Amino acid sequence: MRCHCGGVEIAVRFPSRFAAHCYCASCRITHGTGVVTWIGFKRSQVEVTKGAELLRDYASSPGTNRRYCGHCGTRMMFESQRPDWADEVHLPLGLFVTPVDRAPAVNSFAGERPEWAPLDPHLKSYG
Ligand SMILES: [Zn+2]
Ligand SMILES: [Zn+2]
Question: Which end of the chain has fewer surrounding CB within 10 Å, N or C?
Answer without folding.
Answer: C
